[in-house]
Design brief:
single chain, 197 residues, mainly beta, Jelly Rolls, six-stranded antiparallel sheet, five-stranded antiparallel sheet, 2 helices, 6% helix, globular
Length: 197
């Protein structure tokens, strides 16, 4: 298994080794010891989630506030998505910047998104089955979002606007400078603060 830092170094790209023959293939998708060795801290994933979405479905950008902030390890089982993580840590040198990477059943890459980031994805194939681990439980009361098309973010979702399909909730999320953010200086970005220009 190979690990590398994305343009925003706290985000980690995981590429498994795939061993195949005429019968099929085998691959280790996650190894706790190797992964923790690379990120140099412990991670305790406690919940696995899976969703199926059709072409053009955009889910995001989502995050949870402390004490239910979540790190995520995301991957695609079938199909292809553009996966996006936005830095929402006030004081971070990459605040408001994002990482966008294609995840697919072909490349078998996973993306680790730590606490302090908003996350979303759009389906680029006929459909996609999306799977992810989180290190904190889902809490509706702490669930928050960021508007996917905020011009401050400048995200290219790879599909024309008329092909995107979003929930009413995601169409009404606030802009970057109106959200509750994380404080970059706090350990694991556990404290949240209001940040406005």
């Amino acid at each position: 298994m190979k690990f590398s830092h994305a343009v925003i170094p706290d985000i980690v790209i995981c590429e498994p080794s795939v061993f195949g023959d005429e019968r099929g293939y085998f691959s280790e998708i996650f190894r706790k010891d190797k992964f923790e060795g690379f990120i140099e801290r412990e991670i305790d994933f406690c919940q696995d989630n899976e969703s199926k979405s059709e072409l053009g479905v955009l889910r995001g950008l989502h995050y949870q506030l402390p004490p239910f902030a979540q790190s995520k390890l995301v991957r695609v089982i079938e199909g292809k998505v553009l996966d996006v993580a936005v830095d929402i840590r006030k004081g971070s040198p990459t605040f408001g910047k994002h990482v966008a990477i294609e995840l697919s059943e072909e490349n078998k890459k996973s993306l680790f998104i730590p606490r302090g980031f908003a996350h979303g994805f759009v389906v680029l194939s006929e459909y996609a089955i999306f799977s992810y681990k989180v290190d904190n439980y889902y809490s509706p009361e702490h669930d928050r979002g960021l508007f996917f098309d905020d011009p401050n973010l400048d995200i290219d979702w790879k599909l024309p606007a008329n092909k995107l399909r979003l929930s009413q909730k995601d169409l009404q999320q606030p802009l970057l400078f109106d959200i509750v953010c994380f404080n970059f200086k706090d350990d694991l970005y556990e404290k949240n603060i209001n940040y406005r220009r």
